Amino acid sequence: MYRIAPDSLVEIQRAFVRALGKGTSYQVIKSTKIFSSAGTVADLAMRIDATISRLQMLVSFDRANANDISFSVTGPSGSVAADFNCVSGNTQTICHAYLDDTATANAGAGNWNFATDNQTGASFGLEMAVLSVPKFGETYDVTVETLGSNELSYPGPIPVTAAITKGGRAISGVDVELLHITPTGFEISTGSVSMNDQGIDGDAVSMDGIYTVLVDYDGGQFSPALGAHIFEVAVSNPQNKAFFTDVGKSPSHDLPFFGVKYNQSRAGSIGESGDVFAASTTLVGESFERKGSVQIFLLDGDNDNHSNTTAGATPLLDDNSDIGGRIDFAGDVDVFQIINPDTTQDLSIRVFNMALGMLPNLVVTKASDGTELANGDISTLQSENGYLVANIAQEDLSGGVFIAISHTDANAQKGNFVVSAGPAISSDVPSLPPVLVSAILPSSRSVQTNTTTTFFMTILNGSDNPAYDVGVALRGAFPIADFTYQITEPTTNAVLGTANTPSLIEGRQGQTYVVAFRPFNTIAPTQLEFDASSFNGASITAIAGVNTLQFRASTSPVIDMVALVATLNNNGFVDVPGNTGTGVFAVATTNLGIAGDVTAQVNTGVNAVPVTATLCQTDALGACFAAPSADLTFNVGVNATPTFGIFVQGQAQIANDAAINRVFVEFVDAGGVIVGSTSVAVKTIATP
């Protein structure tokens, strides 16, 4: 049902396009509304994928003469014959063309272009749309809905969701753009970052193929005008980064609303029928475009919905039922009261479903004497599932409690939330973010400025909780440009996916990345530190020689010794038998820079490790050229690959602490500047 009554040919066409997209097998591929300038060509570039069979082109423009514009359609194989039929009114014209299966197949899947040429000396409004019928059932679908009723009251939140699927399989990793059309016909585009599938800002589950936006009323994103509002969602996969996902999916749970089976359980869980699921991130492997829309009717609402004082506090039951709340002006506080709580068990008070930028602060006090029982925000009272929770002991509940919820930003004038209280549930425990650790190879680079530098980084998730949207980020400010990271296949280092695209790391799993950047100015020798950009993972602790990069950039060409360690057991440790035994490891190097004299030296870094270490240069069989010493100087050629043996004699018991007890091998040039380094952990083992 369309609450906006079409009153022109243009509005009739728009209603027709939306109706076809919802009530028939037709799918809206792409559409646009522009102002056609005199004598110009308007292009509608689009991606026609392999699942599409028939196409229909629709055009409407503010002219009464159908000859005022001409049409052209091109596909990957060239020009496409499209016969446009037009109907003109007093001030507007509608034209359409139909391409059957044969015409579409002959033109081929790929990049298409639909163009209109303004043949007049005037400018006028122009709308273009392309619809399709798929070849078979497994095509790309976009289902757009608002959660709950399509009749909403201002200023309650407007949650708009878009489910992206193909043949019932959920798709994540696409670009999603939201266009809002107000009751007056004014259009507001919120851009490709407006909807997210990251489990934040109102999105329930990260990377489950359901994109969400909590529409704001301020800042040009949403108009509070009452009446019918239309939200159009455009989905595309221009960089071929979209992937099928099973996150949150289980055949045992059905949500017919989307036509796909979902639940809120984590991947790896067991469904009702015993089915077990693991997360899948198979690339879709094809670019595509689709559009969908939903209409809501905005009704008038009330102002502040809860008292700011305890005198008018809103009653709240302690049975885990919930009440919605709202911040309506700067300094607003919503106060609730549990009058007769159950004093035989502890009470959990939760603030969740935050929207419109809500960052809640929760204060719980005893109703009898005002004693403060809890006071905190999401950073101090966060639950395992990311909401705010305060757990109140049963002995503090006598006489009831007051609950005051405010915005942590005293200047914030909006924010929605839901509050509930009752016996503790399983998620009412402190948040345990994924524990991330990392390693870097090689651990040093020495390059000339404006030279692209690369290295490999492995990030491991040491917890059972998945880490979402994990990327690589540089800590600190350095004269570095073109910073990129990309996932790799760990056994071959083959680059996968799309640059700067975060990845999911499941619990107890890891992901490898190749990282590149370009220093555009000099950088004195330093240890560069890198973090994971995961939105729910703990920050990575920097460990010199393990996950830092010894780096220097010079305006002139320099020696660049890339060094890698090999240990006897390939475990990253040099094992010292007994307190005074000797352990050995090898270092292989490649000079990627200029030729020159280099001194190799061995030490334990900033930590006093009870060992004496020496090294020697070795031949192809691993034999020393000379007796081992604390350092040695040699000349290295371009692309030369000298190798070294290192001998580590213990002086006392060495604890198994890879972050502290390490042996470093460094290569310095004639000026004393480090041009390469590597390290290995050292520990004492029992004497055989």
Q: Can you give a write-up of this model?
A:
With 688 residues, the protein is mainly beta. The strands form eleven sheets. Strands 10, 12, 13, 16, 18 and 19 form a six-stranded antiparallel β-sheet that branches. It has a five-stranded antiparallel β-sheet with strand order 1-9-3-7-6, sandwiched between helices. The chain is flat. The termini are far apart.
Describe the structure concisely.
With about 700 residues, this protein is mainly beta. It has 2 helices and 48 strands. The strands form 11 sheets. Strands 10, 12, 13, 16, 18 and 19 form a 6-stranded antiparallel β-sheet that branches. Strands 1-9-3-7-6 form a 5-stranded antiparallel β-sheet, with helices on both faces.
Per-chain topology:
Elements: H1 9-23, E1 27-36, E2 41-48, E3 52-61, E4 69-75, E5 78-80, E6 85-88, E7 93-99, H2 101-107, E8 110-118, E9 124-134, E10 140-146, E11 151-153, E12 158-166, E13 169-172, E14 175-181, E15 187-189, E16 210-215, E17 227-236, E18 243-245, E19 281-283, E20 289-299, E21 314-315, E22 322-327, E23 333-338, E24 347-355, E25 360-366, E26 372-377, E27 388-392, E28 401-407, E29 415-422, E30 436-441, E31 444-448, E32 453-461, E33 467-470, E34 472-474, E35 480-488, E36 503-505, E37 510-519, E38 523-532, E39 548-554, E40 561-567, E41 573-577, E42 582-591, E43 596-603, E44 611-618, E45 631-636, E46 643-650, E47 662-668, E48 674-685
